[in-house]
């Protein structure tokens, strides 16, 4: 019997296509505009990245390089994307000529804008009612590698347990993210299911722990190990759960793809 269900968020409970691109460009565009106005009011010259004035395209490219370097230099933080972004922005702004205190303040302000934009996701139409119904039968948790503010995301009220895997320094597929959720749910792996879209980050680690797993994928391009089922969309989850909770002599699920 299942006692608990854990969910990935991005591309599982909502489509994340375009969200990160808008957030990435939007918070950096905000930073350049706000910082430029602040410097102009102080009669200061614009910041320069190397020999050229700091601009959107070059600034974003440099920002990415700094994040990637920090992820290598501080491997325990490789999945904590908020920390990587904040430190990379601080570094970049200092390299462009801001003093340390101003760089820290402006980097923090840019990350506030990042989180504001990151929360502008639209859950699947079925998600709210689906989670409300499931909460009457199962204990629910969210486990994400994303740096969305979990307490503020649109479906937060359904998840009494929410794990930001990168912030606990155990980004998926690290099993510690799942084990932390199971511990807080007071549930053993065999009595829990994880629902997610990433084969490598969601399905494989959950299955290796002995959890049931629902792979949210329109692709049916691989055999599924025992305990793993494929659904094309979360709207199919109630049917899968009903099938799992049925008698031990279960008929094969139609349209479930290879198992």
Written description of the protein model:
- The chain is of the alpha/beta class and 259 residues long.
- It has two domains: 136 residues, 3-Layer(aba) Sandwich (Rossmann fold); 100 residues, Four Helix Bundle (Hemerythrin (Met), subunit A) (Up-down Bundle), CATH 1.20.120.
- Helices cover 44% and strands 12% of the residues.
- It is built from eight helices and eight strands.
- Strands 5-4-1-6-7-8 form a six-stranded parallel beta sheet, sandwiched between helices. A two-stranded antiparallel sheet has the order 2-3.
- Helix 1 runs antiparallel to helix 4.
- It is elongated, with a radius of gyration of 21 Å.
- The chain starts with a strand and ends in a 14-residue tail after the last helix.
- The C terminus is likely disordered.
Number of structural units classed as domains: 2
β content, as a range? 5-15%
**Span between termini:** 20 Å
At the first level of CATH, the class of the largest domain is: Alpha Beta
Major sheet attributes: 6 strands, parallel
